[in-house]
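Data availability (excerpt). The following record was deposited with the supplementary files.
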Amino acid sequence: MSVRGEFRRFREEVGTTPGQWLTRQRIEHARRLPEATDLPVDRTAEEAGLGTGASLRRHMSGSIRVAPSACRQTFRAAPPGPRPPAGSPAGGAPPRGGTLEV
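Predicted structure:
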């Protein structure tokens, strides 16, 4: 199969070009790094394969509309510890008159 044919098949299967797909994967990786690490923006960009901090900011603001620093502040996991189940009061007890659904 020719290179053109491979690109065409990729687009049919994935719905985008290989270059666009790769950029999305890099942006997704760069989005997760600030959530899990304290790497500076320039280092995050290097780790994700996006080059510079300016390039990372441009890609993130254009695709997910969030700055790298906002990812760190917004999406960073809560500190470890017990969490009440969803839908239950802060004490973790089941709601009144019902059972805790799992």
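Summary of structural features: The radius of gyration is 20 Å.
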